[in-house]
Amino acid sequence: RERKRKRPKECGETDENNLTLSITLGQEFWAKLCREHEIAADGMQPGGSDMLTVGLPTLFSEEAQDRFHPRAVLADLDVAALQAVQQGPLHALFPPAHQVCIPQRAGNNWAAGAYLQGATLAERVLEAVRRQAEGCESLSGFQMVHSLGGGTGAGCGAQLLEELKFLYPNKLLSTYSVSPTLDSDVIVEPYNVTLTMEYLSNFSDLTLLFCNKVLSLLFFLKQKQECFSCPPPEHTHTH
Asked: Less packed terminus of the chain by CB within 10 Å, N or C?
C-alpha cells in the first residue's frame, strides 16, 4: 500500500519499502512483479510508460541506471534451494548479498530450525535485512513467505518473526504461511505447525494461510489450462 503525500514524488523517491523473505514461492512473487513492471530477468527496465514506474521503488531498489533488484532476502538451510535460484532464469535479480544459506539442514525438526542450525541462519538473515532496511527511505514493513511444515520455515521462521518484531516494533509484519497437507508422510509436520502458530499469533500483524495441497492443485490446473490454450499451428495437413 502507498501513503499519500501532500507534495508530488520526485524522481527516485521512495514512499515505503517492503522486504520479502522467501525462496520458492518468493521467486514466483517477484517474477509476477517483474512482468507487471516490464523488468527483464537481468533486472533491466527500459522505461517508457509512467504506469510502469508506479509503486516500483516500494518493492525494488535501483542499483544502477535502469537496473533493479528486489528488496528481498532469500534464506534457507538447504543449499539446493538457493542453487535453484542461482541457476534459474531470475538469478541476476538476486545478488549474493540478498542470499543467506548455512549448509546444515534442519531435517523437519522445529527445535533445530529455531535454536540450533536455524539460530545461526537467523542471525545472518537479520544482518542482511538490517542492511536493506537502512537503504530504505521510508520503511513500512516486512513480508515473510514461509512454510509451516519444515524445520527451517517453521522453526527459523518463528524466531525471525520474534526478532523482527523486537527490532522494528512499529513496522507492519505480515506473513504468507503455507500449511502442509493432512495426508503428509512427515509425522512431525503437525507439531511444527502448532509450535509456529503461537509465534504467528503473538508477533505477526497479518497472516494469510495457504494450504499446500490447494496450491499444488491450482498450479496443476493452471498448467493444464495453458496446455489446452496453446494456439493451433499455422499449417495443418489432413489426410
From this structure: C
* 237/172: higher pLDDT: 172
Q: How far apart are CA 20 and CA 7, in angstroms?
A: 28
Burial profile 6-35: b = 16 or more Cβ within 10 angstroms, e = fewer: eeeeeeeebbbbbbbbbbebbbebbbebbe
Closest CA to 43 of 26, 30, 55: 30
Can you give the pLDDT at residue 15? 32
**pLDDT confidence of residue 49:** 61
Measured between alpha carbons, how far is 63 from 57 in angstroms, rounded to an integer?
11
pTM of the full predicted structure?
0.78
* Dihedral in degrees, nearest 10, Cα atoms 27, 32, 34, 38: 160
Whether the CB-CB separation of 157 and 110 falls below 8 Å is answered with no
In whole angstroms, give the CA distance from residue 185 to residue 206: 29
**Does the structure show a pLDDT above 50 at 121?**
yes
Taking residue 133's Cβ as centre, other Cβ atoms within 10 Å add up to 18
